Amino acid sequence: MSPERHPSLPNLPLPAEQVDRPLAAFAQDYLDGMATGEHSHTRAQFLYATTGVMRIHAAGTLHVVPTGRGLWMPAGLRHAVIMQGHVAMRALFLRHDAARSGPPGVAVLAVSPLLRELVLAACDGPLEWDESGRGGHLAALILDEIARAPSLPLGVPQPRDPRLLRLADAMRADLARDRTLEDWAGEVGASPRTLTRRFREETGLGFAVWRQQTRLAEASALLAQGMTPARAAAAVGYASASAFGAAWRATFGTTPARAGHD
Predict the structure, then answer these.
(1) Residue 14 has what pLDDT?
(2) Where are the beta strands (DSSP E) in the chain?
(3) How much of the chain exceeds pLDDT 90, in percent?
(4) For position 248, what pLDDT does the model report?
(5) Which residues contact 237 (CB under 8 A, 6 or more apart)?
(6) pLDDT for position 186
């Protein structure tokens, strides 16, 4: 699901990027399959969606951001956003001084119920809010909550080699098929040894680890959309719900059932 395979929306300057406030909110709904195309912003962003899943390509990594999660995007970093399902994006643009509250690099963050409501309240308010009034209090709480939000391992490094990209896209399209590199070799025109070497060179991961990270990231989107852990496990290629649960707990420190309610 590479960004260049989707029709791109025009990237126009937004008032929220230019207002003289520590942060400004932006609300926009998107249809399934819409994509922004690669672009960057002069201000840091916090991307959140109340419905749908955002797939965000940035710095060679695909970040899967389902409902209940947010993405921190530093200023100036080129990225592309692909929408899965009806995406109700509720985002923040943060001025340089306010952006110090966020992590130094791009990251998927857990969104607390409080942060969710604060973002929605900011979206309902004016762009030029009163810095000494309610708007100022909301902004201060938002920055505190972003600073406290834990990062989640929902970013999967992506290969650059066209053969590996074909493999990655095809595998994501049908994760339930448990195919080995030997199975993929003839299909993408490279030997298993070459695929193994190139995967590690380009992603920093062995193929098995990369595949598990991909499966868990895709499962997070399915769980957020209400799929049961057992069905999500089968959909992303796990032989059993118990194997899926063990991998999920080892990565996220919680259960898949809990993830669906966060």
Answers:
(1) 76
(2) 23-30, 44-48, 53-58, 61-65, 69-73, 79-84, 87-94, 107-110, 151-152, 155-157
(3) 75
(4) 95
(5) 175, 176, 177, 178, 215
(6) 82
Rounded-to-integer distance, Cα 221 and Cα 239, Å: 19
The answer, yes or no, to whether residue 20 has pLDDT greater than 80, is yes
Burial pattern 98-129, b for ≥16 Cβ within 10 A else e, equals: bbebbeeebbbbbbeeebbebbeebbebebeb
The CA distance from 164 to 175, in Å, is 15
Give the CA angle between residues 236, 57, 71 to the nearest 5°: 85
Q: Which CATH architecture has domain 3-152?
A: Sandwich (2.60)
Please say whether the beta carbons of 35 and 9 come within 8 A.
yes
Residue type, 225: Q
Instruction: State the average pLDDT over residues 215-242.
Output: 94
Q: Which is nearest to 37 in space by CA: 9, 64, 68? A: 9
Summarised one tens digit per residue, pLDDT across range 163-181 is 999 899 988 889 998 888 8
Residue 188: which pLDDT band, with cuts at 50, 70 and 90?
A: confident
Domain boundaries, the chain: 3-152, 159-259
Amino acid in the structure at residue 236: V
Q: Please give the residue that has the higher pLDDT: either 117 or 7.
A: 117
Fold equal for 3-152 and 159-259: no
- CATH 3.90.76.10 is held by the domain 159-259: no
- Assign 3-class secondary structure to 1-25: CCHHHCCECCCCCCHHHCCCCCEEE
66 within 8 A of 48, measured Cβ to Cβ: no
Check if the beta carbon of residue 75 is closer than 8 Å to that of residue 42. yes
Q: Which tokens go with 163?
A: 């053969």
